[in-house]
Amino acid sequence: MEFINWIVYGLLINGVLGHVIPSTGDELLNNDFSLSELVHITDLPSQWKLLNDAVFDEGRVILTPKSGSKGSLWNANNYKIDRGFTIEWTFRSVGYFGKSKGGISFWLLNNAKGDNPLPNESKYDGLQILIDNYSNLESTARAVFSDGTKQLTRDDMYDQTFGSCLLSYQSSSVPMTLRLSYDPAQTMLKLQIDNRVCFQTKHVKLPTSNYRIGVSATNDETTESFEILKHKVFDGLTTGAKLPNLKAMGQPHLVTKRINYETGEEQLVEASPLEVSGSDFSNVELYKKIDRLEGKVLANDVSHIANIVKNLLAAEQENAKRIAAMEKFLEVLVSKSGDENKDISGSKELYKDFYQVNQNLEKLFEEQQKIREANKRHEALANSGPHADEIVAKLIIWLIPLGIVMIIMAYYTFRIRQDIVKAKLL
């Protein structure tokens, strides 16, 4: 019986120690910049500021509590960005559904100061994530960068969007979580909504600086109420931010009307932007093909192979210069020793191999030039770049004979010098 108890005890220990709970990123949570338990507090911490009509009520921050109102929530402290981070906002919109000039914006402002870091929402220095239902695409989430040098209208924000997705957010009792993450090692900025990717880009590098984090909203004379339920800031990338991009948010689809001239029948079909803007069908197909090829080239970058070939060409040119200098030296030796030894006077026959080296080198340079041009074509339009092993294999095939020839040249040079010495001694 005691033996059985020990077995059960061992299994329990193994089960406890062997089951590793995956990290959710809570160990990275920065409590000074987070509001993770609003339902358990009666008042906001002192570093949080409510502006305009915003109120804190029953475990939530209501930014637009009444018709025609606006409000914002800001952390009074500066958050220094010198590493990766993750910001999560849990919010919802209730009380209205339909087109409106109102909306909610999430902010990351560079070097903003004062209790109100955003006195003018159309002129700012930083990142804005705007969620509204006013554009031609209706309900969307979009991201805009501005350097604070000029005023931005709503149309300017739509035109300068660098990432967006469709988002049905209005009149929903179910909150949604917006997650913004930044990885400086890959210069990747990613926006996820309920663990689905809205957009991501590797062309953003946030400067190391102090930032103000906040959220603002307006309902433009409607009864729409924007509410913040949670706000979390993590000093690093959380597990959720590292999720694979298996689920993506919806993106706009363009449709075009096609009319059958014989029957007059109308049909709406999905079309690409190229088809909508193009006037010639063949040209549109060509543009689409180029677009696909460009994507494949970017996915199969062969620029590193071109650099390898370029370095090999430089090395071969240096070797060619050395061989040319050696040939001149040997010709001088032959001309000086022509009267001393009759056998050496006929030594030019021995140098046919050296002249053959020039021909081999010319062939090698021509072959390498072809490889170089092929790589350039692959970088421009090729479906996929050649494998580096194939190029290296071809170069080795040419370099092995060249090495053998150079060994033969060294041998003949040694023999000639010996013959010259013997001739002088005689």
Automatic annotation (TrEMBL):
Question: Which GO-annotated molecular functions does the record name?
Answer: D-mannose binding
Compartments, record wording = Membrane
One Gene Ontology cellular component annotation?
endoplasmic reticulum membrane
Domain (L-type lectin-like): residue spans on this chain: 25-236
Name listed for the protein in its UniProt record: HDL563Cp
Alphabetically list the UniProt keywords.
Membrane, Signal, Transmembrane, Transmembrane helix
Q: What is its main location?
A: membrane
Q: Which PANTHER family match?
A: LECTIN, MANNOSE BINDING 1 LIKE, VESICULAR MANNOSE-BINDING LECTIN
- Extract the Pfam families matched here: Lectin_leg-like
| One biological process term in Gene Ontology | endoplasmic reticulum to Golgi vesicle-mediated transport
Protein topology in the membrane:
Single-pass type I membrane protein
Bilayer-crossing regions: 395-414
Q: Which CDD domains match?
A: lectin_EMP46_EMP47
Top-rank taxon, per record? Eukaryota
